[in-house]
Amino acid sequence: MQVGTYKSTTPLDSALDNRAAGTLLQSEFQLCFLEGIIGDNMGIFTPTKLKLIYFSNEFPHDDLQSLLHALHKHSRDRRHPVLARFLEEATLVVREEIRQLPTALRALIPPFETVLDFSDFADLRRGQLCGAIDGILLCTVELATIIG
Fold it and tell me: Which parts of the chain sit beneath pLDDT 70?
């Protein structure tokens, strides 16, 4: 893969300098999504369209339980199949990650129906896996809110 120099005319120069399309920019944000940086056959990338979404590393100030309940209810509505699919896929990915944990850590995680159920596990959110569990919830809440 060839990487070209990106010359931006926006205030995002420092974040995008010398980055290729699809690169995850690591910063204080959970996720930066780049779309539309197109390379020609000489490896020079030119901006055509940029969409950038910043996610904070803090939970929303709203009641988390209410927000998760609303997202779960929303995902069951036939008009929001993308949200339902996202939650299904996120749950499958988390199940696979849990399957790969050592037995001692795997034993800490109670059975769950969906990834949203992790908000109900208060002991788990304060225990040995607290950072991972909060990360799962934070990413799920932020992405699900945008999707649905």
Answer: 1-48, 50
Distance CA 33, CA 25 (A): 8
Helices (H), the chain: 13-16, 64-75, 81-99, 103-106, 122-126, 130-147
The conformation of residue 57, written as its DSSP 8-state character, comes to S
- Given this model, what pLDDT does residue 47 score? 59
- Which of 32-71 are b and which e, b meaning 16 or more Cβ less than 10 Å from the residue's Cβ? bebeebebeeeeebebeeeeeeebeeeeeeeeeeebbeeb
Separation of alpha carbons 101 and 143, rounded Å: 25
What's the half-sphere exposure (Cβ side, CA atoms, 13 Å) at 47? 17
Q: Please tell me the total number of residues recorded for the chain in this structure.
A: 148
pTM for the predicted model, two decimal places:
0.63
Q: What is the pLDDT of residue 11?
A: 37
